[in-house]
Amino acid sequence: MEKREKLYEGKAKIIYATDEPDKVIAHFKDAATAFDAVKKATIKGKGALNNTISSFFFQLLNEKGIPTHFVKKLSDREMLVYKVEIIPVEVVVRNIAAGSIVRRLGIPEKTKFSPPLVEFYLKNDELHDPIICEEHIYAMNLAKPEEVSKMKELALKVNDILKDFMEKQGVILVDFKLEFGRKDGKIVVADEISPDTCRFWDAKTGESLDKDRFRFDLGDLIEGYKKILEKIEKGEN
């Protein structure tokens, strides 16, 4: 596998071409951002932790029959993934009220949602990733109705898998964000699944083990991410 030119650089990752046209390398950076990148920091070791955690979760999903872009983990900071056309819609699944939904709707924090809530957000930094409905998706030609239906279906299946797995490790999956891509005409889970994109609470203590530690100064970010890694590795064994 030959690593070639840089194709794209975002806030958390750099994407490189490879000598195989259908595959790219995702390199995880140590950058941490919050509140539309108003708060920024470089946190040594964050990229390696997110790569390892994401690789674990993608492998778990692949084994459960969920289509993803993940091929394999290459190194501490890099994974090999299929090249996909990213759909500019972020899908958020909420099991418990936290974060923006509390501020937007006044729903008391820690309210449990049954069934889980599914929300769509426009992936657009300039517009601050606004919440949108399915009709907006169709009006802007972002995805077809059958694609949106598949994204929602997969998001809820991912929720079932991750929620069940994390509960066994003593961790509550509060909510998470997924991105999807098109590969050979099919919808697959893409981007990453990590404490950057999920809210994890310790089931016993309620301690935040995700990026909220950075957002709201709740504790050392690396310590929280390491706890997640330790718990999932324990679950694997």
Automatic annotation (TrEMBL):
GO terms for biological process: 'de novo' IMP biosynthetic process; cobalamin biosynthetic process. It catalyses: 5-amino-1-(5-phospho-D-ribosyl)imidazole-4-carboxylate + L-aspartate + ATP = (2S)-2-[5-amino-1-(5-phospho-beta-D-ribosyl)imidazole-4-carboxamido]succinate + ADP + phosphate + 2 H(+). This is Phosphoribosylaminoimidazole-succinocarboxamide synthase. Belongs to the SAICAR synthetase family. Keywords: ATP-binding, Ligase, Nucleotide-binding, Purine biosynthesis. PANTHER family: MULTIFUNCTIONAL PROTEIN ADE2, SI:DKEY-6E2.2. Pathway: Purine metabolism; IMP biosynthesis via de novo pathway; 5-amino-1-(5-phospho-D-ribosyl)imidazole-4-carboxamide from 5-amino-1-(5-phospho-D-ribosyl)imidazole-4-carboxylate: step 1/2. Residues 6-231 form the SAICAR synthetase/ADE2 N-terminal domain. It is an enzyme of class 6 (ligase).
